[in-house]
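# nightly structure sweep
# worker-07 picked up a monomer target from the shared queue
# config: single-sequence mode, recycle default, output format = structure tokens
# input follows
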Amino acid sequence: MLTDRQLDNYAEVLLWGIKTARDGHYKKNDIILVRYDLAALKLAEILQKKILDQGMHPVLRLSATSTMELAFYKTANPAQLVFQAPGDRELCEHLNGSMYLHAPESLTHLSVVDPRKIGRAAVARKPLRDILSRREEKGLFGWTLCSLPTPAQARHAGRSLKEYAREIIKACYLDTANPVRAWDAILKKAAAIKKWLNSMQVTAYHIESDRIDIMLTPGQQRRWVGVSGHNIPSFELFLSPDWRGTEGVYYANQPSFHNGNYVEGVRLEFKKGSAVRMQAKKGVNFVKKQLSMDRGANKVGEFSLTDTRFSKIDRFMANTLYDENYGGRYGNCHLAVGASYTDTYAGNPARLTREIKAQLGFNDSALHWDLINTEDKRVTAHLKSGRKQVIYEKGKFTY
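# output follows
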């Protein structure tokens, strides 16, 4: 559904993404992993050539199909469920960049699988993610991801495949003469807002909407980050708060497709940092089992805000990458349960040990699940001076 020119533009934006996302510089002989779903084959072929042209080494990995995923979770015995292939750890220890080209053929194929099996497999893969996180903290690694239109996504979003593709083209500026220049302009605008947010001395953020009333504690040495190249598209600004200060109720009015399951109307009540009550209109059993995956799964790892002036996304896309960047009338916020992002640390992330992360309230988990709210909301910063300042309302930062 994308023309050759649009696919080439997409590849250029993804290369911009991994370069922007990495603190260090890429050089010849760096190793770039390209993971792709079958429907993204053509984009993978274009990226392979561009990476080779830059003197780097592309490593191509075709993702499992939905049939393969379902067979794995239904058939694997306990040892097979947590098995890691020889060479996976070595590859992670040498990667300089990673791209994931998401083009799912199904969004709900794992709904018949016990969520605990999905959780055990995710926990087993976490050490590999930890390796990449440490490399990223040292400026040795950068990553990005994107999504391509597929019939399954279009159907769940209530769109024709052509309409769905048009939304992706619009959101990523693929129909412009120079999409990289457009992303550079967004990066510059976002930098000004982040500088403003990070200039404040904040003790807590109060988020209020019709169905949200929650307090978040930013914690020590935190900073707002975002529009960093990690996701294409990405318009959100976010931080990883000190999970221990979370109190109140959060509600996700956007449905979510996660790990092959559909959930709707998730309501979480937090006390002393942990979700103590979990409700959902649909998929509540899956929600409860995901949030019991490990000790950090029921705690907050991220809070994010998207300004409607940045994002052209104004429709539900049945894809978290797009839905967490929804612009529409009131923008959106999302709260992620599970793992924190250490790039929100205001110091040098390379110096963060496991002990220091724990002391600062960075959450650790094999889970990271974005739950999205698009209601009209107000976010108020409680400042150390005792003043209060509204930083976000009517879908926009007040900067």
